[in-house]
Amino acid sequence: MTATPPPKRRTAPSRKVPSATGRVQGPYRASGATGRGWATAFGAAIGLLVDRALGEPPSAVHPVGAFGRAMAALERPMWRDSRLAGFGYAAVGAGLGSAAGFVLQRATAGRGSATGFVPQRAGAGLGSAAGFVPQRAAAGVGSATGFVFHRRRTTGPLAKEEADLTGTRESGPRAGGLVRTSLPAQSLATWLMVAGRALGDEARAIGDRLVDDDLDGARRRLPALVGRDPESLDAKGVARAVVESVAENTVDAVVAPACWAALGGAAGAGFYRAVNTLDAMVGHRNERYGRFGWASARLDDAANWIPARLTGLLVAAVRPGRAREVLDAVVHPPAHPSPNAGVAEAAFAAALALRLGGDTIYAGRVDPRPTFGTGRSPEPADIDAAIRLSRDVTFALAALLATPAVVGAATRRRRRATYPSPPASRR
Q1: Is the pLDDT at 179 greater than 50, yes or no?
Q2: Residues in Cβ contact with 274 at an 8 Å cutoff, skipping those fewer than 6 apart
Q3: Among 93, 100, 101, CA closest to 283
Q4: What is the DSSP string of 41-52?
Q5: Predicted TM-score (pTM) above 0.90
Q6: d(CA 261, CA 159)
């Protein structure tokens, strides 16, 4: 009688173990570059929400204020009535902003407790009022935004989960120590460079004065938002100026700095804020800055081109009932002196069913501008609607930036369930 051979065992997928250099190949190797990119975008999302919760630091210690003072001092010896001198000035300013962000990123990478802070279970709760209300989010630095920060685990059952979220899991000789991550630098840099809450607070303060029939008080506060002559404006003119400023500054103070932070890290955020500040300082069409400020103005236009159009798409996303009108306004905006401000104003005008734009008085001269939208002229009550729209765009952008990290973490968890990690080799 012939013995029945034992059943064949199913062969497990081939597993590649760590090599002598500690690198893991195949399904176990974490995608370092991709993970760092996810962590960078996720840090930008956190910075946006921290700004919504805390607002800007005091102006006396704000790095943007220090940068502005430094560039104002540098302008005196560098000023010449030529584009070449202005180009050098813009290059120096952009370089200083990038260098400051790079130093911040290096200072918070892989050094003691400054590293290794990640949001606790930050992938849960997407879609809440702020876009992120993670589990156990009851206390901590960012509890108002739904984030709790804690020391990053390098061992234990939750270590892999945190590493999957931020994309910082590594193998080999460094696997047991602190992993260098850009997440703290990203969160801090984005928070310092965006100003969404400050924008809303200033616009609301002017709107409250208009509601209280304090036109003079509203006029006194208006220069904090716009450069036009406030004394020539009535209540509706002030309301229009505020709504237009909220639209334009949603790009400059929220979407653009967060996008540059997600793209270029803390150095990218510093670069953008430097460029935008230089444009506000010298990018004017007047006798002194017409040539000297040309390079700063053109560089700011280039830096804002994509963020302005992304703002229009986000406006359509958060106001789906007016999405068709918004998209049409973004795709076919009327001619405007700025290639980006017109897109933002057209999107807000369509979303709010208002008519924005028109002739504007700057420094005693009339600057002809196109009109946007076919609705009525803005009134003081429309300022709150514009503030809410800007806020919703901020939350939508935070969700958009965080999505790759959340999806990437889920993908890596599924991959790890399919291909369990091999046992550690004994030596």
Answers
A1: no
A2: 67, 93, 94, 96, 97, 98
A3: 93
A4: HHHHHHHHHHHH
A5: no
A6: 26
The structure tokens listed for 109 are 């990478």
* Cα 39 to Cα 265: distance, rounded to the nearest angstrom: 10
CB hemisphere CA count around 231 (13 angstroms): 2
Q: Is 381 strand, coil or helix?
A: coil
How far apart (Å, rounded) are the C-alpha atoms in residues 310 and 241? 22
What separation in angstroms does the CA of 35 have from each of 59, 176, 247, 337, 350? 35, 18, 33, 40, 38
Alpha carbon distance 71, 78 (integer Å): 10
User: What CA–CA distance (Å, rounded) separates 70 from 307?
Assistant: 27
- % of the chain at pLDDT higher than 90: 51
Distance CA 67, CA 62 (A): 9
CA distances from 187 to 141, 149, 325 (A): 12, 12, 34
How far apart CA 131 and CA 50 sit, in angstroms, is: 13
Q: How far apart are CA 151 and CA 178, in angstroms?
A: 10
pLDDT band at 410 (very low <50, low <70, confident <90, very high): confident
**With contact defined as beta carbons under 8 Å apart, do 115 and 180 qualify?**
yes
Tell me if 194 sits within 8 A of 273, measured CB to CB.
no
Question: Nearest-CA neighbor of 278 among 70, 22, 11?
Answer: 70
Q: Are 398 and 131 in contact (CB under 8 A)?
A: yes
- The enclosing H or E element of 366 equals strand 365-367
Give the Cα separation of 187 and 337 in Å (integer). Answer: 34
Q: Give ∠ CA 71-72-76 in degrees, rounded to 5.
A: 105
